[in-house]
Specification:
The complex is a heterodimer. By secondary structure, chain A is mainly beta. In chain A, a hairpin with a 5-residue loop joins strand 4 and strand 5. Chain B is mostly beta strands. Classes of the chains: A mainly beta, B mainly beta. Chains A and B meet through strand 4, strand 5, strand 9 and strand 10 of A and strand 4, strand 5, strand 6, strand 9 and strand 10 of B.
């Protein structure tokens, strides 16, 4: 059974700081890993999808890395802004009964202080 | 292209009633998954449909059911509502499930009173 852990559970930083969010998973046999953002009461917005053959993916100020062998992924946010305040979730597909389901971490709640 | 559409956005129901939620996936996507999100349990997998067939089901009671239509739109139904069913219900769309990543809708907030 796949388990996903995110550390820290909450993070507060001043505007402009660079920061790193961590995600670890127990089963390294993954197809990919996806990072999402969730604003309060809203759905999930996909930020980055890293395939198992990739080491990194970048989108604007966001950079996600994947190390399958150690069961870890990091999401790097450069020059943080108040609009980045949200909960960040990582998820991996878990294969079962001929299909996939996403296993999520509990998320990191980020607050960027102006 | 249009994203994943969930309706309604908000629902208030009374214990014992039943409810139906709807999800229209991205055009061309054949896999629709449903998740329940609560503060205590986080995001939990309900079920996945692919080409009108349920391929996988999470650990939820039989009161939770779903279906998928030939146009890939999906509905989930919860019968005999309980207070603990209050949650944000999220639908995820993918081309085939797994390799291509998932796109989520905005969710339906269900409150049971």
């Amino acid at each position: 059974k796949q388990e996903v852990t995110q550390i820290p559970a909450a993070l507060s930083v001043p505007e402009g700081e660079n920061l790193v969010l961590n995600c670890s998973f127990t089963d390294s046999a993954i197809y990919n890993l996806q990072w999402f953002r969730q604003d309060p009461g809203k759905g999930l917005t996909s930020l980055l999808l890293i395939q198992s053959s990739q080491r990194e993916q970048t989108s604007g100020r966001l950079n996600a890395s994947l190390d399958k062998s150690s069961g870890r992924s990091t999401l790097y946010i450069a020059a943080s802004q108040p609009g980045d305040s949200a909960t960040y979730l990582c998820a991996v597909p878990f294969s079962g009964a001929g299909s996939y389901q996403l296993t999520f971490g509990k998320g990191t709640k980020l607050s960027v202080i102006p | 292209k249009a994203g994943v559409t969930q309706t309604p956005r908000y629902l208030i129901k009374t214990r014992g009633q039943q409810v139906t939620l709807s999800c229209s996936p991205i055009s061309g996507h054949r896999s629709v998954s449903w998740y329940q999100q609560t503060p205590g349990q986080g995001l939990q997998f309900l079920f996945e449909y692919f080409s009108e067939t349920q391929r996988n089901k999470g650990n939820f009671p039989g009161r939770f059911s779903g279906r998928q239509f030939s146009n890939s739109r999906s509905e989930m139904n919860v019968s005999t509502l309980e207070l603990g069913d209050s949650a944000l219900y999220l639908c995820a769309s993918s081309w085939s499930g797994g390799a291509g990543g998932y796109t989520f809708g905005s969710g339906t907030r269900l409150t049971v009173v």
